[in-house]
Amino acid sequence: MNTDNKIIIFDTTLRDGEQSPGASMNLDEKLRIASVLEEMGVDIIEAGFPIASDGDFEAVNEIAKVVKNSTVCGLARATHGDIERAADAIKPAERGRIHTFISTSPLHMEYKLQMEPDAVYEAVKDSVSFARNFTDDVEWSAEDGSRTEHDFLCKCVEAAIDAGAGTINIPDTVGYALPFEFAALIEMLFNRVPNIDKAIISVHCHNDLGLGVANSLAAVQAGARQIECTINGLGERAGNAAMEEVVMGLKTRHDAMPYTTGIDSTQITKASKLVSTVTGFTVQPNKAIVGANAFAHESGIHQDGMLKHAGTYEIITPESVGLGTSKLVLGKHSGSHAFAEKLKDLGYDLGDNAIKDAFKRFKDLADVKKDVYDDDIVALVDDEVVRSNDRIRLDSLQIVCGTMHRPPKAELALEIDGEVKSCESSGDGPVDAAFNAVKELFPHNARLQLYQVHAVTEGTDAQAKVTVRLEEDGKTVNGQSADTDTMVASVNAYINALNKLLVKREKTAPSALSA
Ligand code: KIV
Ligand code: ZN
């Protein structure tokens, strides 16, 4: 059993997280998330699956160029083509890792791979030794590891280590394991694989039964020293173990689990908000650590206890996860210097032009909203960044609605690939009219699956944050936007979703990527 007490945090928000239906991100968004992950002290950033699309390749490659303190990792199936593509993508990295995987469970081998166990075993050895031609840092994963026969798993793990894998990852791919079983599986590997001391054992737990974090922590107690996780628990289906829960679980219960991570927990809230904005996945209010209610106390008894001693009902301080109260910041008369300083305080590192654009939007906001809070600035800047590379943009919008106007009408102009087009459309309500106009100017077959509005701060002058989910040919995307005008935010969120769909259309279909 491993006695080193440092837990390596491997973040896969940009790879497994992006596999969440609807969570596609563009290059700028991925770069921003990677920079926040690096700043918070993530050891390894899995930046994408380079063979999946040119966009994925470019993202891994660009992240590899700029990230200096974290290892940058690219995923590859057990084929030379995948591995070469991943190797090319991570080439500029100061520290680059290739993560290669193949399924090892009877079910996956028979039905998904249609390969005999002997062929899979050969592929394990071949893929790892081939990957070692490009980097010394190779991770091998036994996909569906938790449902793999023990003898075969031990044999593959031993072979992967012999072939040069420094990290062996045991995924609970379908989130099926229970904590005591998963711990026993890791313990079994430590007891039976003769060369296990030559590798770090990693775990990658999905959350289908809500046990992703519990299984990861149980595995640590059994000797695992790398946890694969994502911000906000994003990931395939029910997602992956949430990084914020793993980190705060270890930090808060250090008395029972004496392990440390290199994560600066005060960056957690910022990272969570950024990932939520970029993906359009709103965090549920009661989500542990980063939910809006995670530090809210509603009942009188609890509030009374809190006033007497915060420890009565709070096991973690809001400050330890970087949650301050949303402060009143700047007003209409604030200058660009104060605004730039504020952006720095909030953790944004923007170029001069981006600051200028954000400042203009801030002035527009301050004109219509009396009190501008930190959260308003975050929503405004995120909105600007989210839309910076869009092919479709809102040029102008005018809505006529109310009891006197039936049916509601929308006059809309969009800039599409640089050309401005306009039209007038009607609908059952103002949102319907505006969305019909978007469809007229940019015809498409995507189905609207979700339309959701939240207030960024309190009061009737608050910015509305709108999420729009679209589905086309089985691919879903979430668009988001914030504005004091709910209709402008709605149209921008719809357009943002369409822009993401355009990016998604370029991706290889998941079925063509099964290992
Ligand atoms: O869930 C899984 O098994 C994976 C592997 C590629 C590690 O994501
Ligand atoms: Zn996974």
Question: What features would you describe in this structure?
Answer:
The protein has 515 residues and is an alpha/beta fold. The model has no long low-confidence stretch (mean pLDDT 91).
Q: What is the fold named in CATH at topology level of the largest domain?
A: TIM Barrel
Structural class: alpha/beta
Q: State the share of residues found in helices, binned by percent.
A: 25-40%
Number of domains: 4
Q: Approximately how much beta-strand content do the residues carry?
A: 15-25%
General form: globular
Strand/helix succession: EHEHEHEHHEHEHEHEHHHHHHEEEHEEEH
How many H/I helical runs?
16
Give Rg in angstroms: 24 Å
CATH superfamily of the largest domain: Aldolase class I
Main attributes?
3-stranded antiparallel beta sheet, 14 strands, 515 residues, binds zinc ion, 4 domains, alpha/beta, 8-stranded parallel barrel, binds 3-methyl-2-oxobutanoic acid, TIM Barrel
Give a brief description.
By secondary structure, the protein is an alpha/beta fold.
Topology:
Blueprint: E1 8-11, H1 27-40, E2 44-48, H2 54-66, E3 71-77, H3 80-90, E4 96-103, H4 106-113, H5 117-131, E5 138-143, H6 150-163, E6 167-172, H7 179-192, E7 200-205, H8 212-221, E8 226-229, H9 243-252, H10 268-279, H11 300-308, H12 336-345, H13 352-368, H14 374-386, E9 392-400, E10 409-416, E11 419-426, H15 430-441, E12 447-455, E13 464-472, E14 475-483, H16 486-505
Parallel strand pairs: 1-2, 1-8, 2-3, 3-4, 4-5, 5-6, 6-7, 7-8
Antiparallel strand pairs: 9-10, 10-11, 12-13, 13-14
The structure holds 3-methyl-2-oxobutanoic acid and zinc ion.
